[in-house]
From TrEMBL:
Keywords: Cell cycle, Cell division, Centromere, Chromosome, Cytoplasm, Cytoskeleton, Kinetochore, Microtubule, Mitosis, Nucleus. GO terms for biological process: attachment of spindle microtubules to kinetochore; cell division. This is DASH complex subunit DAD4. One of its GO terms (cellular component) is mitotic spindle. It comes from the Eukaryota. Belongs to the DASH complex DAD4 family. It is found in: Chromosome, Centromere, Kinetochore; Cytoplasm, Cytoskeleton, Spindle; Nucleus.
């Protein structure tokens, strides 16, 4: 004699297994997407670091140029 609950439990287990398989597929797709995003973000990070270095160099050079112009004007004023 079969257990009446066994058939129901078997059906529920089959549904759970099917849903876990679907979840696993979804998580694999999510993992692939996150890896792709990370690769893209890495390229953006490199570009941002290059741009920040350029910005610092420009700021440094502008400050030096302004300082040099200030010294040149001061020495011209003193010579007069």
């Amino acid at each position: 004699m079969e257990n009446p609950h066994e058939e129901r439990q078997t059906l529920l287990l089959e549904r759970i297994i099917k849903n876990v398989d679907l979840l696993n597929d979804a998580l694999l797709e999510l993992d692939r997407s996150v890896a792709e995003i990370n690769t893209h973000n890495h390229e953006i990070t490199i570009a941002a670091e290059l741009w920040e270095g350029y910005r610092r160099n420009v700021a440094f050079n502008l400050a030096n140029m302004q300082e040099a112009q200030g010294h040149a004007q001061a020495s011209t004023s003193n010579a007069s």
